[in-house]
Every structure is written in structure tokens, then in C-alpha cells.
């Protein structure tokens, strides 16, 4: 599928900042950048995506914007679906909420974004309007426990999704904006069907739902699952929308399938190993950063804000990956 996009891809590989290997005097630093494609027009702007590698994309923009992508924490559907893929068809998983382990992952991510300074930099949190993503966004980027008398609406009221969690304050938090373009693959799986916006508003009073046109979920259908290429096209539309935002630091809390397919449009002219690195699935609560900068601002430093996710560790198989594994086993005649 061909996408209409102003992006052309450049890559600068830098090892992960999670563990820094030692070097000898005779060997080059493993953090020395290795430019895979060197012809960058002098007048261009670039998009830097801080994954395990750093990705440079030529853009028709002249603003500096850091976009931090986060997959939601572990949901009840992740646990049920990894044990039995047919569970994704269960209405009991409708608009899946976080598990207790998922909330522990959120707490650890919140500590990380505080410790690395990202929490103070984020100017806007864009979130998929599903329960698990809004819980993750509020817990990771919101204030701490909400108390009556505070002159700010809570980001999340107490006990949302049977969480037994206290309300989360919006005090000193960035604005939160719900956007349907960054939802998970649409259709068939009840876990990916949202509630009405009128149901969400009292649960997440400080989240702005004004960009969502329909109160009911008119995008989800019970018998047709959104095609991967359509999700990728939706991802490009979402990224193009992000470039129009005035904010320079944006966090996006979304889903494994959406983030995977949104990035799949990039790297087709690169070595297969590089393409594979770009298109790795996000772990639960994993954080990766992408930065739009002028060419003159290019540097070789690795990101200090990336977060590996799955802390604590737990089941997190995305529904689209489980479906691929199911078909793979069927083709080989194995039981799933």
C-alpha cells in the first residue's frame, strides 16, 4: 500500500540507553552513531524517533516537537487472550480495564517520567478513548491522589473499572485530549469497543472529549475487523494531525496494534533488520520518544526518557499478534 506522506526516512543507530556496555581504548564507543543514509538536504527538517535506535525522517515542518508514545498497561483482555485467543470475542472483556498488575506498571511508569523529568516537560497528553488507555494516561501523567477542596477537577474519579484506586488529580498536570484516530484495531473484539462519551465524562472529568464527534461508538463493528493497511493509513493521518499541534512536548497513550501499524509505513527502503527494529511491538506500559527537530539541532545523544515497559512483568500479548500466532499454528497443523 502506498501512503501519501511528506516523510522520507533516515536512520542513525544508537544502542539502548537501558544498559551501557563497557569499551576499551582500542574499540569505538558503542554509542557512536552509525549513519545509514547520509544525503540529508541542508534545508530539511527531521523527525527523530528515540527507540532502541534513533530514526531520522525528513519532514515538511519547521517546529520542534517531541512525541512520546506509550502503550497502555496490562488489561484484563491481555491476560485472558494470551491464555485463550477466543476470549477476545467475549463480551466480558468489553472496554477492558487494567489489572492490579497493570496498575503497578502504571505506578512504576509514573515514577520513571518523574525521575527523568519528562512529566514536567509534557504540554499535552493525547489518549485513545478507551478505559485502559485513559486509566494508564491518568496514572502515568496525572497528579497524585485527589482531595476534595482542590480547585481542579479530577482526571479520574475513584474506583474506575473496579480498580479500587483513589481519584487522580489534574492539579499541575498537562491538558488531556481524547482522540479516536489513535484507537486500537476496530471491530469484532469487544475489548476494543468504547463506551459512550457521556459515560466517560463523569469518570474522567478533566479529559477533553470535544474532538470526538459521536457519543456512541460508530466506528466499531461486530463482524468486520479493521485491516492492517487501514490501521497504518489511520496512523499516518494521526501523525499528520500531530504535526499541526502547537505543543512541543506531546505524550500519546495508545495501543500495541495501532502503534505497530502506524510505524510500519516507515523503513521500507532500509535493511530488513532495521525495518524489524522500527516495527517492534510495544510492551505494556513501554514508552518510546519521537522528536521533530531542525537539521541544525541534530545530535548523537540517545534518549534519556525511554522506558522498557512490563515492570512488573506480566502477560501482554496484543490481540492482533495472538491472531497471527493462531493462524500460523493452523497452517502448520498444530493445535492453538
Major sheet attributes:
10 strands, mixed
Q: Treating each run of at least 4 consecutive H or I residues as one helix, how many helices?
A: 9
Helix and strand pattern: EEEEEHHHEHEEEHEHEHHEH
Q: How much is the radius of gyration in Å?
A: 20 Å
Judging from the principal axes of the Cα atoms, what is the shape? globular
Average pLDDT level: 77
Q: SS-based structural class?
A: alpha/beta
* Low-confidence runs: 1-63, 292-301, 332-336
* Residue share in β-strands: 15-25%
Whole-Å distance between the termini?
Answer: 31 Å
| Spatial strand sequence of the major β-sheet | 2-1-4-3-12-5-11-6-9-10
What is the number of strand segments?
12
Helix coverage percent of residues?
25-40%
Q: What is the structure about, briefly put?
A:
26% of the residues lie in helices and 16% in strands. The chain has helices at residues 76-83, 100-115, 118-121, 131-141, 197-200, 228-243, 256-263, 272-278, 319-331, and strands at 8-13, 34-35, 45-50, 54-59, 65-71, 124-127, 154-156, 168-169, 176-178, 207-208, 249-254, 287-294. A 10-stranded mixed beta sheet has the order 2-1-4-3-12-5-11-6-9-10. A two-stranded antiparallel sheet has the order 7-8.
Layout of secondary structure:
Layout (H helix, E strand, L loop, with lengths): L7 E6 L20 E2 L9 E6 L3 E6 L5 E7 L4 H8 L16 H16 L2 H4 L2 E4 L3 H11 L12 E3 L11 E2 L6 E3 L18 H4 L6 E2 L19 H16 L5 E6 L1 H8 L8 H7 L8 E8 L24 H13 L5
Amino acid at each position: 500500500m502506498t501512503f501519501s506522506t511528506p516523510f522520507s526516512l533516515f536512520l542513525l543507530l544508537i544502542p539502548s540507553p537501558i544498559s551501557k556496555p563497557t569499551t576499551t581504548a582500542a574499540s569505538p564507543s558503542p554509542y557512536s552513531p552509525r549513519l545509514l543514509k547520509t544525503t540529508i538536504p541542508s534545508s530539511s527538517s527531521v523527525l527523530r524517533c528515540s527507540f532502541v535506535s534513533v530514526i531520522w525522517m525528513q519532514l515538511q515542518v519547521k517546529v520542534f516537537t517531541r512525541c512520546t508514545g506509550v502503550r497502555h498497561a496490562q488489561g484484563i483482555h491481555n491476560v485472558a487472550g494470551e491464555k485463550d485467543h477466543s476470549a477476545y470475542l467475549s463480551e466480558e472483556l468489553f472496554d477492558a480495564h487494567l489489572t492490579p498488575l497493570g496498575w503497578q506498571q502504571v505506578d512504576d511508569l509514573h515514577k520513571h517520567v518523574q525521575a527523568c523529568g519528562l512529566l514536567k516537560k509534557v504540554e499535552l497528553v493525547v489518549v485513545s478513548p478507551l478505559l485502559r488507555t485513559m486509566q494508564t494516561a491518568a496514572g502515568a501523567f496525572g497528579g497524585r491522589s485527589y482531595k476534595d477542596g482542590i480547585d481542579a477537577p479530577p482526571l479520574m474519579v475513584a474506583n474506575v473499572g473496579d480498580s479500587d484506586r483513589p481519584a487522580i488529580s489534574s492539579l499541575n498536570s498537562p491538558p488531556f485530549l481524547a482522540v479516536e484516530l489513535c484507537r486500537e484495531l476496530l471491530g469484532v473484539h469487544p475489548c476494543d469497543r468504547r463506551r459512550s462519551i457521556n459515560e466517560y465524562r463523569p469518570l474522567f472529568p478533566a479529559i477533553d472529549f470535544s474532538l470526538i464527534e459521536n457519543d456512541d461508538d460508530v466506528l466499531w463493528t461486530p463482524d468486520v475487523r479493521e485491516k492492517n493497511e487501514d490501521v497504518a493509513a489511520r496512523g499516518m493521518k494521526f501523525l499528520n494531525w500531530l504535526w499541526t499541534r502547537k505543543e512541543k512536548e506531546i505524550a500519546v497513550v495508545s495501543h500495541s496494534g495501532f502503534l505497530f501499524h502506524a510505524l510500519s509505513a516507515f523503513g521500507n527502503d532500509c535493511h530488513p533488520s532495521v525495518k524489524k527494529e522500527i516495527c517492534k511491538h510495544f510492551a505494556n506500559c513501554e514508552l518510546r520518544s519521537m522528536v521533530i527537530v531542525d537539521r541544525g539541532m541534530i545530535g548523537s545523544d540517545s534518549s534519556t526518557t525511554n522506558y522498557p515497559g512490563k515492570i512488573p512483568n506480566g502477560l501482554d500479548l496484543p490481540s492482533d499478534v495472538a491472531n497471527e500466532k493462531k493462524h500460523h499454528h493452523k497452517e502448520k497443523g498444530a493445535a492453538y
